[in-house]
Design brief:
By secondary structure, the chain is an alpha+beta fold. The chain contains five helices and three strands.
Amino acid sequence: MADTFNRKIDELIRDVGAGKLVAGCTVNQPYAQNQHQSLWFRHTNGRPLYLGGPLLENAFSLVEGLSRKVLTPHGSELKSGMQDVAEEMARYVLENAPKDTGQLSLSGNPWVTDNGVIIYDRPSIAPREPD
């Protein structure tokens, strides 16, 4: 029994890998951080903390979804699960960033790194506006 368990754990380590797997979403507009952090702005369509707020509000379900990707009948799908998380973060920007401020809501650039190497990087819908 212990031999089977150890063998399965070794398979899991090979499938999942080791190191640091990171998902993120960059909002690359010159005014993005100011719009995100400024709680005193009166947004008519959108909210402050447009990425961080929804990320914290949905953290449990995001982690729960990732946990389902660690072990699947086809091996680990954790990297694709992290891509899903990065895309979800871009959706938070799309839905929650103030719409009365340029192209901010279209500026989410989702990405994933594996041990510092970019394995997923979808450009934002809107290009960076001039400073």
